[in-house]
Automatic annotation (TrEMBL):
GO terms for biological process: double-strand break repair via homologous recombination. This is DNA repair protein SWI5 homolog. Pfam families: Swi5. It comes from Vombatus ursinus. The gene is SWI5. Keywords: DNA damage, DNA repair. Belongs to the SWI5/SAE3 family. Component of the SWI5-SFR1 complex, a complex required for double-strand break repair via homologous recombination. Residues 20-32 have a biased composition (Basic residues).
């Protein structure tokens, strides 16, 4: 089955649309199978190469794991405790939430007064870096 082009009015009778068919696709001389310009390795060679690259990647990941384990041990030796870190992160999230609400309220107040939030900072003894 040959693909059809869109219907378009022909130059025939006024108000009578006609069909105009166009052949879609590549000409026959270009319909040959695609050949990649990149040479493909032989199947045995490809397996060896992928095996080697996987082994190298595994070795690099093991080395990274060992480095991270050493860093963790060093931090624990310096007195850092994971549970304290989790508490600190939780408190930082709470602080950021409260600060966001404060910024929203300052923005609403500035809007009501017709000023910028920057102009409100001195009134509330806030530093611009707060």
């Amino acid at each position: 089955m040959e693909p059809r082009a869109l219907q378009r009015p022909s130059g025939g009778e006024p108000g009578t649309p006609g069909l105009r068919r166009a052949r879609l696709g590549l000409p026959k001389r270009h319909s040959a199978a695609f050949r990649s310009p990149v040479p493909t390795p032989k199947s045995g060679q490809a397996d060896e190469t992928s095996e080697d690259s996987l082994q190298l990647e595994i070795q690099e990941l093991k080395q990274k794991r060992d480095t991270l384990d050493q860093e963790i041990s060093q931090l624990m030796a310096e007195g850092y405790v994971v549970s304290e870190l989790e508490d600190h992160i939780s408190l930082l999230h709470e602080y950021n939430d409260i600060k966001d609400v404060g910024q929203m309220l300052m923005g609403k107040l500035a809007s009501i007064r017709g000023v910028t939030t920057k102009e409100l900072y001195p009134e509330f003894d806030l530093d611009m870096n707060d």
